Amino acid sequence: MPQYTPPLRDMQFLMQEVLGLPARFAQLPAYADVDTGTMDAILEEAGKFAVEVVQPLNLSGDAEGCTRNPADSSVTTPKGFKEAYAKYVEGGWAALSCDSAYGGQGLPFVLNQCLYEMLNSANQAWAMYPGLSHGAYEALHVYGSDEQKKLYLPKLTSGEWTGTMCLTEPHCGTDLGLLRTKAEPQADGSYKITGNKIFISAGEHDMTDNIVHLVLARLPDAPKGSKGISLFLVPKFLVNADGSLGARNPISCSGLEHKMGIHGNATAQIAIDGAVGSLVGQPNKGLQAMFVMMNAARLGVANQSLGLMAVAYENALAYAKDRLQMRSLSGTKAKDLPADPIIVHPDVRRMLLTAKAYSEGGRAMMIATSALVDEELNHPDEAVRKAHAAQVALLTPILKAFLTDKGFEVTVLCQQVFGGHGYIHETGMEQLVRDARINMIYEGTNGIQALDLLGRKVLGDQGAALKALGKLVQGLVEEEGVNERMADFINPLAQLAGQMTGITTELGLKALQNPDEVGAAATDYLCVMGHLVMGYWWARMAQTALRALAEGDVADKTFYEGKLQTARFYFARLFPEAGLRVRTMRTGSKLLMNTDAALA
Question: Where is the Acyl-CoA dehydrogenase/oxidase N-terminal domain (predicted)?
Fold first, then answer.
């Protein structure tokens, strides 16, 4: 059975030493009382919950999966899932970062993200049940009517009810403009919703009394395409005015997907047969409201891969220190043993260091972006809120695609460290590989994220958000450019940052002549941007570690030295991928599109 130790020291390093969050929170009235002690206590208890309650169910939940009862379309989750969820609600974890007006604890979003990283490391399939609820909460918090907020937000906040997002249909995939689900207005102001949805994570289960479905559908007079989509709240059980449950709504699970991974989560086919729903937000502007949930989910999916990278690395490292095989090429290292531990072999260290670099670099990206979300929502200065909102919008597709791409790469490498033992279920490594693969696909495939980044977030605003990111990088370069101890980190970062303005301008000019140029370059462009952002945070972590070591008698010397060694490995062995991607993105669209004979 795989082991898991929450990365509390690394989270503290990032939040307190690199980002200085306690001082930043002091500038936010909502979080002025959130100090270091509060943060540490929450993270410690969250780690205990993940390890003691959720992680023991991961292997068994994967083996058992979910079961649908054909008689009533109900779904039973794996043994122990329901009881673990009850403990989650009892512990107040669902309410951690929710609005106190609806029973929430009102704590920073970044702490919620740290909680979810640990839950994803422990058991991604289980963590998806409460995770999606938070997205539904966010959408209703922003766009819900007063009545909807009153009836639904307290229950979503407490975790007594869960939520889903019902977007896609069998024929349309990501192209939501093609959806056919209908919404018929009723005399009492409600709507009758009819249609079929697929790939609905946590779409039906036995863990709560009610499920709040947020469903995209079309009104009778809706314009064609994505401009004619509205968002509706469709509960599993109707809710009475006093908050009690009423009649069963005709929205049900018509089947469960038989999946490659995340077996413990019910990925449901949903049949909606005249179910009663209420409009969320304005008619024909459903995507605007749903994007609140979708963007939250995209950061959530990035966090899923971050969690998987962390636990994969931990187990691969432990295995490499224990597994005996062959002797070191440079001479015997364990003379009292029949063979050396495989960690002495350079290629094993390459795999482990790759996993460590992407895992810890990804955590820095996630925590830094989550802190921006807190300031976007709570900073007293409107200009700061707008600037941070633009940065979060730019970073969201980068985190979703880059971290899930690297998450799959890391889990495969960590499985490789185990050799043949990584291929069997008991070690847990093959499950991590299977679970990681879905993260590159759902909540918008990574190709879609790349198009969103280059086409909308960069070229669409004439590079304004990209320039703001560039200024952040340039500030670090100017601060440390003459520091020889930082040269290994600053020089490659400065070189890539200097290239990005010219590359982006070049792609924009090409796209004016042929829009396919955006599609041809987008995936490479996102990877380059991923390395630019991760490189910036690895440089910041190296800067912090060097300063700590310079203070002399450092109690945690090994920790800081490990940061520097990993940073040097990242910049020497992984960061150069950005240069290769710059070359390939410049090959243009003709190389891809003039290939009818090759693809005949």
Answer: 78-160
